[in-house]
Amino acid sequence: MTTTTAETTTSPEAPATGQATAQPPAAPQAPAAPQATATPEATIAGARERIDALDDRIIGLVQERMAVSAVVQRTRIASGGRRVHLSREMEILGRYRDALGKPGTALAMTLLELCRGRI
């Protein structure tokens, strides 16, 4: 699993106390344009390797989300609450829909089902 740490730099506006300010991690870069000498097969093979690596990361994140969701559910039940909090699920559905359109809603539903089971 890859761990990302924030870089620290001193801001020009920061007082000269040597304090560092955290900079957000760089945004993901778009894949490089295919080189003129690369064959279509090589370009496709390289892109598929990248997709496989992304899928591995996505699967790991889903598994992590499932574990965190289990903690939330156990804690909620232990404190006398319900296993599922429907207004929270609506927030999640809306966030995925806003970011990814209608297919985002289906993806969010699948994630919710993986994380909390069928209701």
Automatic annotation (TrEMBL):
Q: Where is the Chorismate mutase domain?
A: 38-119
Q: Which PROSITE patterns match?
A: CHORISMATE_MUT_2
Q: Which Gene3D superfamilies does UniProt cross-reference here?
A: Chorismate mutase
Q: Which InterPro entries match?
A: Chorismate_II_sf, Chorismate_mutase_highGC-bac, CM_dom_sf, CM_II_prokaryot
Residue ranges annotated as coiled coil are none
NCBIfam families membership: CM_M_hiGC-arch, PRK07857.1
According to UniProt, the name of this protein is Chorismate mutase domain-containing protein
Organism annotation: Streptomyces rameus
